[in-house]
Design goal:
The structure is a homotrimer. Chain A is of the alpha+beta class. The first copy, chain A, is built from 3 helices and 8 strands; from the N terminus they run E-E-H-E-E-H-H-E-E-E-E. Chain A has a single domain, classed as Sandwich (Jelly Rolls).
């Protein structure tokens, strides 16, 4: 078994789901692994990862709307407000979704289902660039 | 280190938690690995995975009831309704739980705690069959 | 590639987020791996894992407050109450967060972002000790 580790920088334009499947698929190609696994890890706590439906954009809008109601910006319950009304909701959304996702590598490609895409879920309204580590291992 | 990858097909009868621990334990036996890790990945976005209490069925019923209230079918907020009132709630439930779970392999067996079971969490009321990838690696 | 597996016992004093980054970092040092991955798995369903902001304690308090409102103790909807009013909320919180977390190992250390810490998220008010498995693999 061998492994391959690289860092990706993603610059989301704003809050919401940003597809990163092609970027991660390229990293898997560079790894030169036929059968194995791919881990994607995001080095932040105000943006996260989620695997979601990749066909109809309305599904992503509905998902964002759910989080906007469940963890609203400017919630008066929050103490942690120094970085703005969208800071604490970002941490809550991150805790409810994933800091890392694993996807099997099958025949040299990401073994996602037909309707699955991997998304960076940006929670800040004015985000900076985001660092992700992609680690691929197998044979 | 060596690895073993296989696909499991599970056919849940309806919405809810369906235990798959024995199916995954068999895959670990077939892998012939004593110490390592087991990843289970579900290739869908309207069913997910969760590790939950395996003793009292009332815990699973309460968990389902929580999700029914948190992401109700037919929510008028949803745009994405073409596949029925339980479609978008399925995606939300999937985002809140897990597309993959990892379990250590200890002494050739799944290293789950005494009260832990691995469940396919089916979110659709009339599901089709579900494909999972089990990947085991170690020594 | 080589691997290292060990068990950690953590004794949280009560409900809430308990940082375990230093404990896991020590296990990574013991593994003697320069580039690879670290999995942490918790063998319980009433405590879980979460990667959160490690700087301002108010972020952790706000996160706990969110869960106290989303899955309140003593919810009259719950059937599963034999072990007390905080038992079923513990299972719900565990389902919404993570049973395992993976962190890349970079230059022999946990590749966390600057503001990330790994926490045991204890959900019971009077917890016993908790068992975690740390598995590190790579080169």
């Amino acid at each position: 078994m061998k492994q391959h580790q690289e860092t990706l920088t993603v610059s989301p334009e704003g809050r919401g789901l940003h597809e990163i499947t092609p970027r991660v698929a390229e990293a898997v190609r560079r790894a030169g692994i036929t059968t194995g696994l791919c881990l994607v890890f995001i080095r932040h706590t105000s943006a996260s990862l989620v695997i979601q439906e990749n066909a109809d954009p309305s599904a992503r809008r509905d998902l964002e709307r759910w989080f906007e109601k469940a963890a609203p910006d400017g919630d008066p319950d929050h103490e942690h407000t120094a970085e703005g009304p969208d800071d604490m909701p970002s941490h809550i959304r991150s805790a409810l979704t994933s800091t890392s996702e694993q996807i099997p590598v099958v025949d040299g490609k990401l073994g996602l289902g037909t309707w699955q895409g991997l998304y960076l879920f940006e929670h800040r309204r004015r985000p900076g660039s985001r660092k992700l580590i992609v680690h691929v291992w197998g044979e």
